[in-house]
Amino acid sequence: MKSVAAVLTASFLLVGCANSEPDWDLAVKPLFVFQTLKAAQGWQQGTPALATCTPSRSGHQHICQLRDNQVAGAKTEATEALFDDEGLRALHVAWPLQDYAAVAGELTAAYGTPCSQATTNVRGPQYSTLSNVVTIWCFREGAMTLEKYAGNRDTVRLTYSSERASLVPSENRLQIL
């Protein structure tokens, strides 16, 4: 696992969708589907894709690990899905940096043209500059973000967040270490 924890909030994820295509009708945006997980589906229906699920103290949320550690043709380092009473709320998947091109290609083939993509400079090892690519796909009920340099700069991270995720208290948001 990585030594740097990162917490991604829905507000960051949804900014790309809100600003990139303001005239795009929500009715024509696709429903989010990842492997056999669907946005409006509960954790019980997602069990073929889930290895283990742990209920929250309230029993209204479940944090689950994905069964398949091969996603987009590459071995994952970490996977988590968060479900609430209304279905899939958030999904986090992490890969080693060397798998970025394969993962980005598979996601674009599966989900089509992203609704937003930005490149920023981030500090790399020995004061080098790295070009961080952040790609966002928009869906009816949320957004999926692929970040090239996440965490300690050697991890690729995919995060899906439903619009409901912005209502979650920060202490209940998923973290990938």
Automatic annotation (TrEMBL):
Protein name: Lipoprotein
Entry annotated with the keyword Signal: yes
Signal peptide interval: 1-20
Top-level taxon of the source organism: Bacteria
Keywords: Signal
